Amino acid sequence: MPLLEGQGISRNFGGVRALDSVDLSVGREEVVGLIGPNGAGKTTLFNVICGLRPTAGRVVFDGRDITGFSPHRICRHGIARTFQLTRPFVDLSVRDNVAASVLFGRNRRTISTLSAARERADRVLSWVKLDRRRDASAHALLFSERRRLELARALATEPELLLLDEVMAGLSAGEIQEMIDLLGRLRRELRLTLLVIEHVMKVVMTMCDRIVVLNYGSKLAEGSPAEVARNRAVIDAYLGVDDADGRGN
Predict the structure, then answer these.
(1) DSSP-assigned letter for residue 91
(2) Which of 56, 72, 91, 127 is deepest in the core (most CB within 10 A)?
């Protein structure tokens, strides 16, 4: 049984159909990439998984229908996400930003004090190599460090499924490779399942076991990275000649 299933998901905004009968499945410990042109419906699909009620269809996580659950309930069932725009609590320390997520997450009943949450936060910060910055204010972080803080805040809730929304955006080539290596290690050590929105094709082709392509709110294609890269409809709609053979961004 897949860990996550989206069954016939549609979502309208007024007269605009952002998603049109999209089916999606993600297996346990699988990494699935979600790609497509801007406006294809990728982030809307993330929002539906995280509580936005669809116009039609349902979301099933670990065998349970979670369609329309509030975001905090979904988080406590084991789904966490990052956002394209990082918005930490800028007046708090890096450590306390992560501690807040610990207190909000799945183990809030066993880790219920600030001191215990900070201890757990220290461990999470060491995973993303921010432990030396734990006492800095979040507003003092570099852009790449804010990306890692966003990841740490999601990890601190102890998810089974992690949704990453363009976590590489704005990073340099070297920082992208560091993030790829970091996510690969976390996937193995924490046995995470990842659903990844990404425009950097190196990331998609390197990290993902399977890719789902959206276009105008509908599923255009699905398959292994190699299969998707050869798909003429995907090339015409999104990849282009350079990206299809691995040279593009």
Answers:
(1) T
(2) 127
